[in-house]
Specification:
The protein is 24% helix and 37% strand. By secondary structure, it is α+β, with helices and mostly antiparallel strands. The protein folds into 2 domains: 216 residues, PmbA/TldD fold, CATH 3.30.2290.10; 235 residues, no CATH class. Helix 1 crosses helix 2 and helix 4 packs parallel to helix 5. The relative contact order is 0.13.
């Protein structure tokens, strides 16, 4: 097994570091196999398969710390990286906030996280699904002029070892597809998008995605401009996912909390959101995408309640060992695995599940007198994290709702609003959950959301 080899490499790396007389050491050996098929203008134009691996090495000399990543699993290259890490640590100032690397804890693998068929998926199999999506979209309407997107399959493995006795590993597969459909009519362009994520390639349904994206694309033709202001809003799961992702980064990370940038620091134990909202981070739930048994430091993953009946508290914060040590606490198991460009030493929730309600999206639309349906957001950025003010644009399917019906497409809108205000009153929460990247979410209807401008596109 790949993870067995990675475990051996991680443990040998730690032993070698200890032989160099370091105080503590940690090694994370990882291997990522990423296969991607891209398509545009209704044709496949790129197929790539990249394998990358390496070892992230952390050494501690008293309280002087350094982390070096070696982009190799070769023993000599890893040893060179250990020596480099030691040199950097010796030249560094002591970090008074560092307490300890994690102590070992019992852990159990997550069943079903790895799918052999997905790990061995071929370019031809991906091409067949892409072809199905393209054909479905063009069959939807003669106004469809182009289909674009990507289909990706991944297998991921990592193993963590440290000088205190931690020895843990994780292995999982991922499959995800995004389809964007472009339509044209009389000089007007319409756009629609749909995405799907799973740990199993066989779960990806290209015809369903393409049909959904094509319908939104055609319906988006000849959009009208509406005035900025506050509107009732029906957010699709894609849009909800974007908001929760930013909420997780700026609100529930211990780094933001300790820096005074998290709204939780100032609003703990208050009724911040609608009481319908319950959000938990739980990597062991089969409904999440990144189902791993341990985090990037080998700490076992456990459920962490982020929002309970609309309230947040000090217990909502995600810690890694360093941020936990600053407060005399234990890590909550939210250190990210150090794999290539995705690594950042900032704890964050990446298995968030929003508790479903009992509404269908059709009911939410019927319940809306004058509002906006949002497929997704993009170019989102935090404006004032302590008030959870975000700004961004709607995209790929934005529609006006009048008297309980979607009546016409509208030109994309810019929102700038506090999510504390927007999610204060939530009339409806969807009954169906969708896995979208680091979140598992339903549709959500908001009583009001502030739109401040109209996009040029």
């Amino acid at each position: 097994m790949v993870v067995e080899r990675l475990r051996e490499i991680a443990e040998k790396t730690v032993q070698y570091a200890l032989q160099q007389k370091v105080s503590q050491a940690q090694a994370v050996a990882f291997l990522l196999d990423n296969a991607l098929t891209r398509f545009a203008n209704s044709r496949i134009h790129q197929n790539v398969d990249q394998k990358s691996g390496g070892v992230a090495i952390k050494v501690v000399l008293d309280k002087r710390i350094s982390t070096v990543q070696a982009d190799t699993l070769d023993e000599s290259g890893v040893k060179d990286a250990v020596q480099q890490a030691i040199k950097i640590a010796k030249a560094s100032s002591p970090n008074k906030d560092f307490k300890n690397l994690p102590e070992p804890e019992p852990w159990k693998p997550v069943k079903g996280a790895f799918d052999k068929e997905t790990a061995e998926c071929t370019p031809m199999l991906r091409a067949e699904k892409v072809k199905e999506a393209i054909e479905t979209a063009h069959e939807k309407s003669p106004k469809v002029t182009g289909v674009a997107g990507y289909l990706c399959t991944q297998s991921v493995g990592y193993a963590v070892a440290n000088s205190l006795g931690v020895s843990a590993w994780a292995e999982l597969t991922l499959a995800y597809m995004k389809t964007t459909v472009i339509s044209q009519d009389g000089g007007s362009e319409g756009f629609g998008t749909a995405e799907q994520y799973s740990r199993r390639f066989k779960d990806i349904k290209p015809s369903v995605l393409a049909d959904d994206a094509a319908e939104k694309s055609v319906r988006s033709l000849h959009p009208v401009k509406i005035e900025p202001g506050e509107y009732e809003v029906v957010l699709s799961p894609l849009a909800v996912s974007v908001i929760l992702t930013y909420m997780g980064m700026v609100g529930f990370s211990a780094t933001a909390y300790q820096d005074g940038q998290s709204f939780v620091k100032y609003l703990a134990n208050q009724q911040v959101f609608d009481s319908k909202l319950n959000l938990v981070d739980n990597a062991r739930n089969p409904k999440t995408l990144y189902a791993v048994p341990v985090d990037g430091e080998g700490v076992p993953k456990k459920p962490l309640e982020l929002i309970v009946d609309g309230k947040v508290s000090e217990k909502s914060i995600c810690y890694n060992s360093f941020t936990a040590g600053k407060e005399g606490k234990k890590s909550t198991g939210h250190a990210l695995p150090p794999m290539g460009d995705f690594y950042r030493e900032r704890p964050a929730p990446y298995n968030m599940i929003l508790e479903p309600g009992d509404a269908a999206v059709e009911e939410a639309i019927e319940d809306t007198k004058h509002g906006i349906f949002v497929t997704t957001f993009h170019y989102v950025n935090p404006v004032e994290p302590t008030k959870l003010i975000l700004t961004g644009l709607t995209r790929d399917g934005t529609f006006l709702i009048e008297k309980g019906e979607i009546t016409k497409p509208i030109v994309n809108m810019r929102f700038t609003d506090s999510m504390l205000s927007a999610f204060k009153e939530v009339p409806m929460v969807g009954e169906t959950l969708e896995i979208i990247r680091t979140t598992t979410v339903p549709m959500v209807k908001l009583k009001k959301m502030r739109f401040v401008g109209v996009s040029a596109y």
